[in-house]
Each structure stands twice: as C-alpha cells, then as structure tokens.
Amino acid sequence: MMEYKGYFAKVEFDYEAKIFHGEVINLRDVITFEGETVKELIQAFHDSVDDYLEFCTERGEDPEKPYSGKFVVRVEPELHKSIAIEARKRGKSLNSLVSEALSKAIKATTKQRHSL
C-alpha cells in the first residue's frame, strides 16, 4: 500500500508487460499511474496525485476528500436492536459504540497481520 497526501494506492505487477501499475483506491475519481521501477512508480504516483490536485484547482473545484467520516452500514433489525440496547446500557451513542468496535477490530486485525 502506498500513501501520499492522504491518498492511498494499490499496486500490482504485470509480469508479461514487466511494469508496475497502481490506482488510488480512496476516491471515486480514477487516478492511475505506472512505472518500470519502484522509483518510477513512486514518482508517477506522486505526480498523478499532484496533477489531480492541480486540475481541481484550475477548475475551481475542491478535490474529493478521501474520507468524510460518514458511511451507511446496513444490518439485520435484530442486530440493530442489540447494538442500540448495548449502547444505551453503556451510556453511549450508537455511533460511538459502533466506532469503538470497528476501531478495536481494525487494530486487532492490523496487529495480527504485523505479527505474521
């Protein structure tokens, strides 16, 4: 995973073409880049993000923010009920309880991945 100015990219290697290619994954807009070496790939990624930001400025538009902090999660009604009751028991909002649970899950997953 690569990161530059808050934008994250996924990179793959095309064995037949002998080239790395990547795509920014935290935008609806499409930003791609490629390089034959790691150094070229990193520079192409930085250049592509910078070009995107410059393009937005030229058009007088705000660049798409990678994350707004809001998303909708659909769950079964019984799970929704259980989460809401648990939040009330703990004196927390539904958002706070879910946010804490997601944060713990991601930290545990990240910790487990790094220990392998």
Question: What is the β-strand count?
Answer: 4
Q: Tell me the β content.
A: 15-25%
The proportion of residues forming helix, as a percent range, comes to: 40-55%
* Class from helix and strand fractions: alpha+beta
Q: Could you name the CATH class of the largest domain? A: Alpha Beta
Helical stretch tally: 3
Low-confidence parts lasting 5 or more residues at pLDDT below 50?
none
- Which strands sit side by side, in order, in the main sheet? 1-2-3-4
Indicate the CATH architecture of the largest domain: 2-Layer Sandwich
Q: How many structurally independent domains?
A: 2
Q: What would you report as the Rg, rounded to the nearest angstrom?
A: 20 Å
How is the CATH topology of the largest domain named?
Answer: Double Stranded RNA Binding Domain
Q: SSE order in H/E notation?
A: EEEEHHH
The pLDDT mean sits at 92
Q: In this structure, how is the largest beta sheet organized?
A: 4 strands, antiparallel
The first-to-last residue Cα distance is 17 Å
Q: Specify the overall morphology.
A: elongated
